[in-house]
Structures are given as C-alpha cells and as structure tokens.
Write a structure and sequence with these properties.
The complex is a heterodimer of chains A (about 100) and B (about 210). Chain A contains 1 helix and 6 strands. Chain A is mainly β. The termini of chain B are far apart. In chain B, the strands form 2 sheets. A 7-stranded mixed beta sheet of chain B has the order 1-12-2-8-11-10-9. A 5-stranded antiparallel beta sheet of chain B has the order 4-5-6-3-7, covered by helices on one side. The chains are: A mainly beta (about 100), B alpha+beta (about 210). At the A-B interface, strand 2 of A face strand 9 of B.
C-alpha cells in the first residue's frame, strides 16, 4: 500500500502511522456556561471513547513520521483500502497563522 | 580537578575503512564517502512567518529555500528541503561561529538548531549506486522521477534520513547524499557497505569544500 503525502509524494505505508477517525470534534462549552454536568460529561465521553465502525469511506488522521513529520487527513475506503484523497491536516507547516484545527 | 578534553570524532571512525572492498577484480561500481567538516543547521519557519523566512534566506544565500522536496545550491551553502516550511543549511565548516551568523540572519522569523555534530553526511555515487540503494530504500531513483536536485525525507532501514541527489549531477554520474543521525551512522554504514559490496566499493573520507 502506498500513500501519497501532499508534501513528499507517494511513499510506502511503513513511513506512516495511523491515528484514527478525523471526524470527532472536541466539545466546546463555555466555562460556567450553565450546561448540566451530565451533558458535558456525555459529550466528552462521546468525543474521547465512542467511535463509528465505518465500512466505506472515512476521514482519518495519518502521521508521516518516517518522512516530513506532518499530520495528514486521508479519505480512505475501509473496505477496499483505496485512498481517495490525502491532504495536510489543518495547521501542518507554518504557513497558516492559526495553530491547529479543531 | 581533571580538565575535560573534547575531541571531535567521526561516528564512522571505526566502521569506515578507506580503500577498495568487495566486487571482483579491481572494478569500482560504487564510491562511498563520508563527508567530514560540514556545518549543518535546521531552519524552521515560525508560525505565520514563512514569507519573512524566505526573504531572510534569500538575503543570506542569494536563493529562495526550496518549497518542494528539492536541494538548491546557494551562496556557500546547499539548502535542502526537510518538511513543509523547513529546510537544512549545509556548508563547509569554517573557523568562527557560523551558527551565530545564521541565528542573526533569521532572528525572530525562524527557529534554528545546529545539527553539525548530530548528523553524518554519506555520499554514494557510481554506476551501481542506484541498484545498491534500491536494496534499502523504497524511493524511486530513476532519472525521470528523482532528477538532479531532488530531495526526500524518508526512512532507510527504519532510520530517518535526509536524502538528496546532488544538484547538477547528470543521470549516469548521479551523486546521492544522505544525512543520517550520528548514533545510527555506524549501523547504517554497514547496511550500505554490504549492499554495495557486489559492485565493488571504493570507500574514502572526503572533506567539505
């Protein structure tokens, strides 16, 4: 399996490590915003532990540790292992003034 | 109290035996060199300061640093892409504080790290070089894919290396450079030498000019 890093080009998959689903978004509650503790806890439990077991195309984080050391977001078909697209994760490199992407 | 004396020593002090190795007869299919006396500095643009970093590099080296995996020759230095918005500055070691000069040149726009004693520069050339490299690297080094000046950060034998083809080196005389961590240099040297043996190897020590 070869993965096309947007910075380096096509490389063997041994240079990459898989992190997981890129979809979960960190819950964003205002401090003392009046949310019930149960709701906050549920939202974080969902964010930290609960994952969909997708059969088909999913967005996932990959790390090119054996190469340019950039975080990437890949769209991959979990059934066929086909990579549909690989893009830099938000905040990769120094170009964007914002640190990272939630 | 005893005074410490720090002797600069190559990580290949033991492993590199100059002379001809392997092959049949006197043929030399691969030349293998360790290039000593280099100054190497990692430059990483700070967040949102890419344009200023490029400008500072242009002022220091008269060329723009590569924004794709390439190595470019500038004034007294080669700039090698090492990742998005970062590159390495390779030059011959001189007397005086080269790092301080660069730090001043990139002040406020990029973060620098002196890697002169952290990496070891190995140079591979010759008619058998590509075949030997194919044994331990997964890169496609064909002239049409990896032309002169092409660079890659990759893993060789599970070890991270900065790899590039010497700018200006023509296809049949392609020269490949590898920067490897000093602590892995000894082990990698054996891997490289073993891979080259069947073609006949001339091993030597070179000094950066």
């Amino acid at each position: 399996m070869r993965i096309a890093c947007p910075f380096c080009g096509e490389r063997e998959n041994g240079e990459f490590t898989y992190l997981g689903d890129a979809s979960p978004k960190r819950p964003n509650f205002a401090v003392d915003g009046g949310e019930s503790p149960e709701r906050v806890e549920d939202a974080f439990y969902d964010y930290v532990y609960l994952r969909d077991n997708v059969a088909g195309v999913m967005r996932e984080y990959w790390y090119h540790g054996g190469g340019c050391r950039s975080w990437l977001v890949a769209e991959r078909n979990t059934v066929t292992h086909e990579f549909i697209s690989v893009t830099a994760a938000p905040g990769a490199g120094a170009a964007s003034a914002v640190r990272a992407g939630e | 109290m005893a005074d410490f004396s720090w002797n600069v020593q190559s990580p290949l002090q033991q492993a590199l035996v100059p002379g001809r190795h392997g092959g049949a007869g006197t043929q030399v299919g691969v030349t293998l060199e360790e290039v000593r006396g280099v100054s190497l500095v990692q430059v990483m643009a700070r967040r949102g300061r890419v344009a200023e970093t490029i400008k500072a590099a242009k002022k220091l080296f008269s060329v723009e640093p590569p924004d794709t995996p390439r190595a470019v020759s500038g004034r007294n230095a080669t700039l090698i892409w090492s990742g998005p918005d970062q590159f390495m500055v390779l030059s011959a070691r001189q007397t005086g504080d080269q790092f301080a000069k660069l730090t001043a040149g990139f002040a406020g726009v990029a973060s620098l790290s002196d890697q002169s004693d952290g990496r070891c520069l190995i140079r591979i050339a010759g008619s058998g070089a590509r075949q030997a490299l194919a044994k331990f690297s997964s890169l496609d080094l064909h002239d049409s894919v990896f032309p002169a000046g092409a660079a890659a950060t990759t893993a060789v034998d599970h070890t991270a290396v900065n790899f590039w083809r010497e700018p200006g080196s023509v296809d049949e005389n392609a020269v490949f450079n590898m920067l490897v961590f000093t602590s892995f240099a000894d082990s990698l040297w054996h891997t490289i030498l073993d891979s080259c043996l069947e073609y006949g190897v001339q091993a030597s020590v070179a000094h950066a000019a």
